[in-house]
Design goal:
The structure holds two protein chains of two kinds. Chain A contains three helices and four strands. By secondary structure, chain A is of the alpha+beta class. In chain A, strand 1, helix 1 and strand 2 (32-36) form a beta-alpha-beta unit.
């Protein structure tokens, strides 16, 4: 699956990226984590709060940091 | 199917925590007096005794009230997503749009690091520039921590006064900015993004009740966990003032009869950057030393509502002229509020 992390380089965005990578490791699956920093690109996707995370093009949450466990359960669902 | 038993435990935990909260709140006062005058054997009515008792009572009381307010507000916030706010505000006319935007600004979860995506997202969905500004002014200025702490430290009247005047400033500055037709003072790349058709948007999911409760618990952990040292520090200063410092110390500099006290408060407040938790202990100290309420409210609004880092962030989407107009109009609103309250209270 494709995990996209949207954020403009703030500390929270970095934490979320790390959590997403940890979740991928825990899942043992073949998932890619992509980080999107560009304001124009973030805005073009209709995101209103950073950090945000999408899985396979579907926005799962915005404006918060989810734990690795939470992201893991989203990957399994 | 993430263990339904643990979800049940989470739900059952809420009434238990509420009972515990009520019990703690009820024993706060007698316990503080017992520790100060019984355990430490301090003399009631002495400088030291009154300071210690004040700290032991006020510290836990403020933290308890803040915890409750943050939990309730974060829970309510989980029902209001920025996406839904954006859709409600889109294509609204000035006036009603500004009023709604100011109100939504208070209850929508907001972090200044999200200001840019939110700003562009609103404009793209057809929210007028002036209405977007009303939201951008209200969101940082009136938030759950500011209101919770004002309520806990100074009572509901001052909390309401702060919220009410903040709303008026957000409403009117957005209304004025909307009339100026400054859309062309947005940065060129923003104008380009605004022309894109809104395709490729992500779909949002609705959280369950358990997720909302989780969010509220997490909010308490994040916010109260971050601000408690500031609050205790501030209350310690307040306790010393309560016991030792003579009243009317600040009356000369920030008193209501000093004409320059409000502009001084705003000039000092705007470049300072702090959250509500950092500024409220200062506010308490200022008020305790005889500063006027209008000047103090103006100072608090200037610190929380306008800040140098926010201007730097907004510079990425706005040209200098638009930023200067925005800061100027909001600062003017804060000045007026300061003068009005100094005059009538």
């Amino acid at each position: 699956m494709l995990i996209e992390v949207f954020g403009s380089g703030c500390a929270k965005c970095e934490t979320l990226t790390q959590n997403a990578k940890k979740a991928v490791e825990l899942s043992g699956g073949d998932h890619a984590v992509v980080k999107i920093n560009d304001f124009a690109a973030i805005a073009a996707r209709g995101i209103l709060g950073t950090p945000a995370l999408a899985i396979d093009g579907k926005l799962r949450f915005q404006g918060k940091v989810a734990s690795a466990d939470e992201i893991l359960s989203m990957l399994k669902a | 199917m993430v263990e339904s038993s643990s979800f049940m435990r989470r739900r059952g935990w809420v009434p238990l925590a509420l009972l515990l909260w009520i019990a703690l709140y009820a024993i706060c006062h007698p316990l503080s007096e017992w520790i100060a005058f019984g355990l430490f054997r301090l003399t009631p009515k002495s400088h030291l005794g009154e300071s210690v008792a004040f700290f032991l009572y006020d510290g836990p009381k403020v933290l308890l009230l803040l915890t409750l307010v943050v939990f309730v507000v974060t829970f309510l916030q989980s029902f209001i997503s920025p996406t839904r706010v954006r859709d409600t505000l889109s294509k609204r006319r000035a006036g009603l749009g500004n009023a709604l935007a100011s109100l939504f600004g208070v209850i929508t979860p907001f972090c200044s690091c999200s200001a840019i995506p939110l700003f562009i997202g609103f404009l793209r969905a057809g929210v007028p520039l002036g209405v977007t500004f009303s939201f951008l002014v209200a969101a940082p200025m009136i938030n759950e921590v500011a209101l919770g702490l004002l309520f806990a430290m100074f009572g509901w009247k001052i909390a309401l006064l702060y919220a009410g005047t903040g709303l008026v400033i957000a409403f009117s500055s957005g209304l004025v900015l909307g009339q100026l037709g400054m859309e062309r003072h947005l940065e060129p790349w923003v104008q380009d993004v605004l022309k894109l058709s809104p395709t490729g948007e992500l779909e949002e999911e609705r959280p369950s009740l358990d997720q909302r409760l989780d969010q509220a618990t997490q909010g308490v952990r994040d916010i109260v966990g971050k601000v408690w040292p500031y609050i205790l520090g501030g209350i310690a200063v307040g306790a010393l003032i309560h016991g030792y410092v003579p009243q009317a110390f600040m009356a000369g500099l920030l008193g209501r009869s000093t004409w320059y006290s409000v502009p001084l408060a705003v000039l000092v407040g705007v470049p300072l950057y702090s959250n509500a938790a950092g500024v409220l202990p200062i506010v308490e100290a200022l008020l305790g030393k005889g500063a006027a309420l209008g000047s103090t409210l103006a100072f608090m609004m200037a610190v929380i509502g306008l800040s140098l880092p926010e201007v730097v962030i907004l510079r990425k989407v706005m040209r200098p002229r638009l930023i200067a107009t925005f800061v100027g109009i909001v600062a003017l609103g804060i000045l007026l509020v300061g003068y009005i309250f100094n005059a009538i209270l």
